[in-house]
Design brief:
Elements (H helix, E strand, L loop, with lengths): L6 H18 L11 H22 L5 H30 L2 H15 L3 H8 L16 H23 L4 H22 L1 H6 L5 H11 L9 H21 L12 H13 L6 H6 L2 H8 L1 H18 L6 H27 L7 H24 L10 H8 L15 H4 L2 E3 L8 E5 L1 H15 L4 E6 L10 E2 L7 H12 L5 E5 L19 E2 L8 H22 L2 E5 L9 H8 L4 E3 H22 L2 E3 L2 H4 L4 E3 L1 E2 L2 E2 L9 H6 L9
Parallel strand pairs: 2-3, 2-5, 5-7, 7-9
Antiparallel strand pairs: 1-3, 4-6, 8-10, 11-12
Helix pairs in contact: 1-2, 1-13, 1-14, 2-6, 2-9, 2-11, 3-4, 3-14, 3-15, 3-16, 4-5, 4-16, 5-6, 7-9, 9-11, 10-11, 14-15, 21-23
Amino acid sequence: MSIKYRPDIDGLRAIAVLTVVFFHAGFDVFSGGFIGVDIFFVISGFLITSIILEDLDKDRFSIKVFYERRIRRILPALYTVCFVSLIVAVFLLLPDELNGFGKSIFATLLFVSNILFWSEAGYFDASADLKPLLHTWSLAVEEQFYVLFPLLLIFVHRFLNRKYVHVLVIVSISSLLLSAWGADHKPSATFYWSPTRAWELLLGALIACNCLPILKAKWQSEIIGWVGVSLICYAVFIFDYDTSFPGLNALYPCLGTALLIYANQCTNTFWSRVLSLKILVFIGLCSYSFYLWHWPVFVFAKYLSAEPVSAWQSVGLICLSFILAVLTLKFVESPFRNRDFLKGRWRIFVLALLGALPLFIGGLVIIAGKGFPQRFNDIERLKTYIGSSVDKSCVDIPFNKFESRKCIFGDKSVPNTSFVVWGDSHAGAIVRGIGQAAKGSNKSGYLASFSGCPPLLDIKLARDKKPYKCKHANQAILSSIKAGDIVFLVARWTYYTHKSPINKEGPTWINDAYSHDISEAENFRVLSIYLDKTIQSIKDIGAVPIVVDVVPEFPRSVPEMFFLFGKDVMVSKDLFLEGRKDTSSILKNISVRNGVEYIDPSSILCEHSACFANRGEDIYYLDNDHVNLQGAIKLAPLFEPYF
C-alpha cells in the first residue's frame, strides 16, 4: 500500500469546515451544516487507517510514533486557541460562565469535553451558544477513538491474518445499530458519545482497507462521485435541528463522503478536479485551525453584543476566523508538523505536557475562584435580579407525593383552596402574581408545576429520558382538582411546538400514545387535540379552566444583558407576536370553542412596538423567558377579574 497526496481530500475538508462555519453563522440555507463534522470523521478514518496499515505492512508501526504524529497535528493549534480563549474569557465572561469555561478547559485537554457538554445540555440548546469550547467535543470523540483503534488493527494484523475488513464491518455495524437506536431513545448521548460515532470513522477506515473493487471505467467513478455529492448536499440543505441525528440519517453525509473518496482514488473525475481547486485546497489546509477558531470567535462576539448578530457581522466574523486560521497554520501548525522541528520524540511529549500545564492551572484557578466575581464591582446586584419567584421545593414534586407536599399561594389563612396553577416551569414563575391577585379576594390555591411538562393530558415527551413523566404527573394533578376550582393552564406553549425566532430555543417534541413522529406538524397536532381534551376533562369535574398564553422571551438572560450593557432589554413586538402566531391561534380557538377565558401576558409586558423585560432597575425576568417575582407581581392585574 502506498500513500500519495490527494488534493481532493483537502478540498473535501474545505467543504466540511465551510458547512459547519456557515451553519454556526446562522445562515438558514445551511440548515444541516452540522454534518460537516461527520465528513471530517470519515476523512480522518480514511487517512489515519491508510497510514497505520502502510506502517503495519512494512513492519514499522510504532504506537509512540503514532501518538507523536497526533500530538504534532492536534495539540499546538488547540493550545493556541485555548490560551487566547482563556485570556479573553477572564476579561469578558460573567462568573458563572467563566466557571463553566474553567471546567471545559480541563475537559478539552483531557479529551473528554464531549462527555462534559453532554452532561450539561444539548448541542442545539441556546445555552450552548455561550460556551467557547463547545466545538471541541468532536476532537474528544476522535481522540477517544484513536486510543483503541491502532491496538485493534495491531491485533488483527498479528492474530487474525489481517482480516481487517471482516472485523471493521462487525464493529461498524454494531456502532451504527447503537447509533440508530440511540438517536430516538438517547439523542443527546448519541450525538456526543464516541461509541455511537465510531462507525463514521470506521467507514473511512473501510475505504482505506480497499474493501471495494477498483473502479476501472471512468463513467463508474463519475456516477459514484455524483451520488456522493448528492448525498452530502441532501444532508446540508435538507437536514435541520429537528432531524433525528446521528443515527441512520448520518448515513447520508458519511456514505456521500466515503463514495467521493472512493470514486476519486484512481480516476481524475469531475468532482476530483473541483475539489482540487487551489482555493478549496487552501481552505482545506487551514480547516483544522479554521474549525478551532470560528466557534470561540462567534461566542465572544455574541457575548459582546446586546443585539443578535446580523448577517453582515457574521460574514465579518467568518473572515476574522479564517485570518486567524491562516496565521495559525503558518506560525503554529506547519512548524510543529515538520518532524525536523524539535527532533527527539521525548521533546515533543515533554512540550505537550508543559503546554498543557498553564492551561490546567488556569482552569483550576478559575474553578477555585468560582469565576472571580470580584472582577465586577456590583456583582451582588446581578444576583438580586436572578432569584426565582417560587421556592424550588414547590416545583417538580414527585407525582406520588404531590397531595402531601403541594405549596399554597394567595391568602394562606383560608383553609380551602379555590384555584390551581397547572403547568411547566412557567407556571412556577408566574404563580406569585396569581397568588397576589387571589389574596385581595381572600382566596387561596396551589401550584402544580413540573418542569418541561405542559398541562396536556396523555402526552409523552419524545426523545426524553423519561418520556412518560408528564403523563403520570398531569394525571396526578387532574385527580387533585375539585369542582369549583379555577384552573390556570400556564406553559411556555411555543417551546412544545416550534423553534423560537428570538432565541432559537425549542422545541421539546411531544407525541401521544399512538404517534412517534418528530416534527413541528406533530407538535401542533398534539397540542390541538390534547389541550381540548384537558379542558374538557377539567370541565367534566366541574372546575373552570383558563388558558394563559406565553410571556415574551428574549435572546439572552435579561439580568445579564442589563448588567453588561446597562440599558433596557427589549424585543420587537411584531417579531414576538409573529413567532407565537400559530401556537396562540390554537390556544385562542380552543378557548373560544370550549367557552373558556384566554389571558395574554403580552398585553402588560408589550407596548406599541416593543416588549420590555425591564424598566431601569425594575427587572421582570430571571433569565430569558421566566419572569421573576417582580415580573409575576406586574402581571397580577391580569388575574384579578377571576377572583
